């Protein structure tokens, strides 16, 4: 019985140049692979598995275009295993049974283990997933699944318990630039036989709007090059206009390191400060569509929540941090959704910069008057010598006075200084009333 061998890296067929650039440029080993250093770097899990030729069932969880399929094929080739790949969208239980029968024959006639790669494994229903269980457990097949969805929710617990879940991260712009540069230089599989010139800003543009997806970056690069006819010298110069056509996205006026960057972020902050959610959303969209780092925006929102909202709405800071965590968890392209929610909340929240201004005033005194001595009555006295020197003497324990006590906690020179002046806005008003009660209580305790 002769079984058809499947090799993802077979580039000797006459039709290889007709394949999309992204398929032609698939890395053939870990040395060519870009990104996922936490998995493929020296002494990391996949590097060790390949180096030691150890097989185990895996689930790759990550966004599109980060190398899930490619890594599965690299592992199979390194292990000299029979590699079968199919999509959960198009395959059923009948197909699984055929793969199992094929895997048994591979082991019997060729002494080859079978790696079954299932793309979008989360789309398999319970019956389809259950069909794998016994055969994964007894070693007939080694399963490698790929999913963009949380495996804990989408894959049956019995099957998931037999697999090691590896989280794959979105590729950075630098990763994408490296991948595109490799394609431009590769004469065998890439565009290296063509005389192509791509200015740095155009290279950056394609990387930014590929959103961490290597397949998207290579497809856009190939489209940009193919849209051009060589000039009289045979050179193809990819302009920003050509890249826009290839990416199908217009480059906005926005230099992340220049004046426009500061202009737009200033407009964004001032729109939220002015309680204008519509304008804030517009400037948010301007930044995101121009390729601004969303985590930079999230950091500015956290600062804004503390500086401009403060205690007028104490939940604002918590929400801003949650927005950052939410974006960190889901990334782009959906990451704009929690960012938009956070922006509208912050813009509509009551405003108070009382805490911010109070600190600035306190800082002035620290810088202007130096390190004033701590009053003796609020010093700590852990030793008998310190007690004898008067440390802690006369300290009034507030709980013994109902929480209100006439006692200064400032250096003597600043005894009557007040920095914090809550506003009448939101929760700030309650704090202001509370402070008034504290002062009244202290005066009554004299």
Structure characterization notes:
The N terminus is likely disordered. The chain is built from 20 helices and 7 strands. The protein has a 5-stranded parallel sheet, with helices on both faces. Strands 6-7 form a two-stranded parallel sheet. By secondary structure, the chain is an alpha/beta fold. The termini are far apart. It is elongated and about 90 Å long. Strand 3, helix 6 and strand 4 form a beta-alpha-beta unit.
SSE diagram, text form:
Elements: H1 21-24, H2 37-40, H3 45-52, E1 58-61, H4 68-78, E2 82-87, H5 93-110, E3 114-119, H6 126-137, E4 141-147, H7 151-154, H8 157-160, E5 164-167, H9 173-185, E6 195-197, H10 200-208, H11 214-226, E7 235-237, H12 240-247, H13 259-273, H14 277-289, H15 294-309, H16 315-330, H17 336-348, H18 354-369, H19 384-388, H20 426-444
Parallel strand pairs: 1-4, 1-5, 2-3, 3-4, 6-7
Helix pairs in contact: 5-6, 9-10, 9-11, 10-12, 11-12, 13-14, 13-15, 14-17, 15-16, 15-17, 16-17
Strand order of the main beta sheet, please?
A: 2-3-4-1-5
Question: What helical percentage do the residues reach?
Answer: 40-55%
Low-confidence stretches: 1-11
What radius of gyration results from the CA coordinates? 31 Å
Helix-strand pattern: HHHEHEHEHEHHEHEHHEHHHHHHHHH
| Beta-strand percent range | 5-15%
Mean pLDDT: 85
Distance between the termini: 101 Å
Number of strands: 7
For the biggest sheet, the summary is:
5 strands, parallel
């Amino acid at each position: 019985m002769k079984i058809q061998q499947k090799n993802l890296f077979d580039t000797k067929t006459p039709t290889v140049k007709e394949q999309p650039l992204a398929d032609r440029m698939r890395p053939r080993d870990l040395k060519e692979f870009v990104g996922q250093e936490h998995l493929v770097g020296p002494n990391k899990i996949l590097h060790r598995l390949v180096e030691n030729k150890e097989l185990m069932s895996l689930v790759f969880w990550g966004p599109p275009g980060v190398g899930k399929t490619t890594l599965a094929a690299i592992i199979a080739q390194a292990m000299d295993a029979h590699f079968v790949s199919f999509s959960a969208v198009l395959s059923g239980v009948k197909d699984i049974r055929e793969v199992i029968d094929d895997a048994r024959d591979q082991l019997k006639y060729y002494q080859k283990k079978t790696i079954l790669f299932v793309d979008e494994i989360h789309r398999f229903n319970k019956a389809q997933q259950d069909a794998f269980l016994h055969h994964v457990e007894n070693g007939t097949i080694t399963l490698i699944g790929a999913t963009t969805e949380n495996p804990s929710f989408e894959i049956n617990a019995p099957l998931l318990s037999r697999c090691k879940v590896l989280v794959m991260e979105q590729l950075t712009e630098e990763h994408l630039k490296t991948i595109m540069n490799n394609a431009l230089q590769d004469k065998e599989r890439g565009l290296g036989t063509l005389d192509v010139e791509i200015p740095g800003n155009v290279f950056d543009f394609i990387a930014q709007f590929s959103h961490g997806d290597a397949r998207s970056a290579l497809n856009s690069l190939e489209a940009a090059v193919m849209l051009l006819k060589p000039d009289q010298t045979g050179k193809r110069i990819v302009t920003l206009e050509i890249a826009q056509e290839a990416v199908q996205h217009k480059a906005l006026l926005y230099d992340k390191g220049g004046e426009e960057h500061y202009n737009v972020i200033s407009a964004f902050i001032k729109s939220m400060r002015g309680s204008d959610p519509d304008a804030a959303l517009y400037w948010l969209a301007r930044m995101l569509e121009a390729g601004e780092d969303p985590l930079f925006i999230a950091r500015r929102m956290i600062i804004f929540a503390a500086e401009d909202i403060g205690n007028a709405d104490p939940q604002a800071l918590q929400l801003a941090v949650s927005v950052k965590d939410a974006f960190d968890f889901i990334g782009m392209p959906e990451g704009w959704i929690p960012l938009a929610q956070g922006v509208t909340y912050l813009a509509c929240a009551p405003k108070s910069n009382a805490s911010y201004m109070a600190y600035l005033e306190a800082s002035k005194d620290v810088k202007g008057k130096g390190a004033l001595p701590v009053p003796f009555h609020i010093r700590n006295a852990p030793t008998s010598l310190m007690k004898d020197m008067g440390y802690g003497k006369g300290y009034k324990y507030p709980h013994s006075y109902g929480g209100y006590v006439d006692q200064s906690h400032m250096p003597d020179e600043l005894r009557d200084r007040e920095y914090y002046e809550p506003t009448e806005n939101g929760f700030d008003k309650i704090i202001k009333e509370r402070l008034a009660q504290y002062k009244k209580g202290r005066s009554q305790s004299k």
